[in-house]
Amino acid sequence: MKVGIDIGSGTNGTSAMLDLEELLATRLLVQGNSGSGKSHLLRRLLEQSAPWVQQCVIDPEGDFVSLADKFGHVVVDAARTEAELTRIASRIRQHRVSVIFNLEGLEVDQQMRAAAAFLGGLFDAERDHWYPVLVVVDEAQLFAPSAAGEVADDARRLSLAAMTNLMCRGRKRGLAGVIATQRLAKLAKNVAAEASNFLMGRTFLDIDMARAADLLGMEKRQAEMFRDLGRGHFVALGPAVARRPLQVVIGSVETAPRSSSPRLMPLPETAPEDVEDLIFTPGPEERRPVIKRPAPPPPTPTADILAQLSQPRPAPEAPSEPVFEIIDEADRDARIETVLREILEDADAAFRSDAILYQDFLVRCRIRRVPGEPLELPAFRRKLAVARSGVDNATASSDTWQQALELSASVPEDVQGVFLVVAQAAVTGAPCPSDAALARSYGTHSTRRARRLLTYFEELGLAVVRTDFRGNRVVAFPDLNCETAPGDPNLPDDLADEQFAAE
Question: Quick one: signal sequence residues (predicted)?
């Protein structure tokens, strides 16, 4: 079905139509300096297409929440855990609800992490829910920066990977990216290059004008035209809007943003003497009670100080108790194991980042009065990986399991938990964990990622994966001289847990 969206008028006075079905297949990039009308353009596009397609707006400043009153969008506040945002995004795709993902009030690092979790949930949705969605990302240079800035490296990598998935691989999953940026030079090139439609607004920097002209296939001398564009004027090009560069004036909108451009206002008429009172006289909420400090004691005479210094120093008394607390290492390890079990009993713990789990671990250790210095983050990750394997005390004391721990140290930290889960099944002769169980151990909902980890272990020469005649999977560890029992790889996670309990 072909649906034309009226985004404004062209230079010849005719309506500038945007083919919505073509846009879903080819994506859109909007560029313009602050005040060029970029957000107005996005609002026009969202209002005109709202009756025809599901929409998800990544809104860093909360400007688009006003769409909810007019068009029924649901406002999703980003002040939630990453696991919650991922599950919410999955349900959004399942029920085809248009939403505004409001990131207002969060720091830049938190905005990048929240956007990465939300976009990851949209991207990892089940195949049955791959309905077409218009994903609009305002201020895209925040989420896909071209270079490292003052934000944490892990937050930047997560956000950049999510934006790359949206623009590069999202089309087959029904995700149509519409990204808007103030500076093309600050936007990652592999994200911008995936768009086939462009709307370029006013810009003044030479590097941005040159890149905009290059994307539109214009000569460098024609790039000067971007300085002369008025507010709300854009140059359009792409299969969804125009086959040749076309200057477009964006039409009016039905809703208004919560923030607007600054406008001149007359100064208040106040007498000069009143102005001084307003500035120099504290208000009632600023007044603090005056605290009178006692007078300092008189200085000690010099003769008394010399007399005190000349006196012999008494010998220190031997401490009746040890200076440092004697720590029972066995009791400390037992308490740490208890804390780790409490954390893993939470069903959402598998899908939380190690940093969040580490903070929870430190708080629980203080509550349980665990003696000694707290574990460092690398040691915590190691103990958490061992705890996730579910190994019992008898197996943990065996030589085979100790050898498995040594082998796990040769794989990256983030996959050690998955390796130990499979190794534990091999050491105890339990059925091979299902794809869903391995995905939970890895902290993802994607079973394909879990299967790739088994292939990765094979490439390292640590394991051999085979399938029996019934289609069940068996994983053998040549270095441990043991293998798992046959297990159904398609078994749901809860059924897999019941099978292990029965064994």
Answer: none
pTM: 0.53
Q: Domain locations in the chain?
A: 4-250, 336-388, 389-503
Q: Which fold has domain 4-250?
A: Rossmann fold (3.40.50)
3-state secondary structure of 451: helix
Sheet with 464-467: strands ordered across: 464-467, 473-477, 482-483
Are 230 and 257 in contact, with CB atoms under 8 Å apart? no
Q: What is the CATH number of domain 389-503?
A: 1.10.10
If residue 337 lies in a helix (H) or strand (E), which one and from where to where?
A: helix 329-345
Task: Report pLDDT digits (tens) over 194-231.
Answer: 888 888 888 877 777 777 777 777 776 676 777 778 88
Q: Please list, in sequence order, all residues whose beta carbon lies within 8 angstroms of the beta carbon of residue 223, skipping any fewer than 6 positions away.
A: 206, 209, 210, 212, 213
Q: What is the pLDDT of residues 174-195, one digit of tens each?
A: 999 999 988 888 888 888 888 8
Q: Give the residue with greater pLDDT, 405 vs 318.
A: 405
Query: Residue 323: its pLDDT value, please?
Result: 47
Alpha-helix runs per DSSP H in 346-390: 354-367, 377-388
